[in-house]
Amino acid sequence: MHVRWLNVVVVVFVFAFILAGCGTKEAPPSSSPPDTSSKSSEKIDPATLAVALKTDEPVYPTGEFKPYRVEIKDATGQPVDVDKVYYFMNMEGMHHPTEGTMRHIGPGSYELFLPLAMPGEWYAEITVEAGDKSHTFTGYHVQAEGKHYQQYMKGYNADELGEIPPDDIGGSDNTDHNGMNDEHSNTDDHADDEHSSMNDRSKDEYGSTEHDQKEPNHGDTGHGS
């Protein structure tokens, strides 16, 4: 009798142990990396990030507002959002800075439309700010071709003058800013036309000019040979 009850107790104990082991089994760890795009900027060190400049064209036309995009990722390759991304371009030995604060357009992605004043190679600097830390990334280059645009020679700051994406101006990359060059180049022609018109009006009012008057015939002096 005691042996039978002992067997029952042992069976119950083993069954309870098996159930307890099944209930505490841990789930396998997730293979996907954590999302760091919304990570607090206070915990981000900008110097440890990877910053890539994405250009749509191998060569940029001068005088047109074109997009420049930046992608920011951490050491694991995940996109990272920061507090501010400032984009700056210039030419070596020149002073034609074109710059501005980039817009956030997606996880770890930023964009800004800017014009280039003249053809040649431009260098770019990207400053990333997160919390109370900042870091400037260098080594980026952009090639430009086209004519010189005097209105951008002294620089263009999108934070002060405004960013002008093509969609905001009827889908045309040539903005009203570009028309300043044509207006300047036509100034002399306009002045010449106006001067010519004034001469025509003067002839109508006063007749022939001094150069048009007939010179006297000095051969008819009345002196014989």
Question: What would your notes on this structure say?
Answer:
Mean pLDDT is 74; it is low at 169-199 and 202-225. The chain contains four helices and ten strands; from the N terminus they run αββββββββββααα. By secondary structure, it is α+β, with helices and mostly antiparallel strands. The chain has a domain at 41-172: Macroglobulin (MG2) domain (Immunoglobulin-like, Sandwich), CATH 2.60.40.1930. Helices cover 24% and strands 28% of the residues. β8 (120-130) and β9 form a beta hairpin. The strands form two sheets. The protein has a six-stranded mixed β-sheet. Strands 1-3-7-6 form a four-stranded antiparallel β-sheet, with no helix packed on it.
Describe the global form: elongated
CATH evolutionary superfamily of the domain at 41-172: Macroglobulin (MG2) domain
Q: Which secondary-structure class do the elements indicate?
A: alpha+beta
CATH architecture term of the domain at 41-172: Sandwich
Number of strands: 10
Total DSSP helices: 4
CATH fold name of the domain at 41-172:
Immunoglobulin-like
Helix content: 10-25%
Give the neighbour order of strands across the main sheet.
2-9-8-4-5-10
- The rounded distance between the terminal residues' Cα atoms is 180 Å
Low-confidence stretches: 169-199, 202-225
State the name of the first-level CATH class of the domain at 41-172: Mainly Beta
Mean pLDDT: 74
The H/E string reads HEEEEEEEEEEHHH
